[in-house]
Amino acid sequence: MEKTATTKIPIFLAVIFTFVGLLLFAVFILLAGVGSEGREDRFEEQRAKERLAIHDELLEADLKMLGTVGWVNEKQEIAHVPIDWGIERAMAELSKKPVTASDVAVPPPMPAQPPQAETPEAATDEGATSEDQPADEAEEADQAASGEAAGAQETSSSTTAGEASAATGTPAPEEAASE
Question: Is the entire prediction scored with pTM above 0.85?
Fold first, then answer.
């Protein structure tokens, strides 16, 4: 059996060759990146100038069309007129149409919720609800509320019918009979 001779590269040479190779690769990448930056910026600037020139031409043509009379498509008889003329013509056509009710179905407004009367006990016991109160306290609250309602009826009966009609805007029964 023959032994083949292998040459061993010293480790320090392998490290140096690897380092030099990586350094060359990094320099190549940097040069490629730096060289393209300038070209890309100039290319984008040129494209931006072209786009602005096209935009200005279109804007000028649109403004000219808005203030003049001419054909958009003569075969189909589609013309363009100044905006003021178009508004006047549309107003003339709309004023000739009869005014009718809309076909759009509008739902009725939601009824307003009456404000909830606050009992004196509920005002002092702010966080408590009727479920939190024992049964006899709930009964006392109901009696107090009915007592307030009776007191309110007594004060309202002491006002005259004329005062009530003035406050509500509805005619009093005596006034309605005389009319």
Answer: no
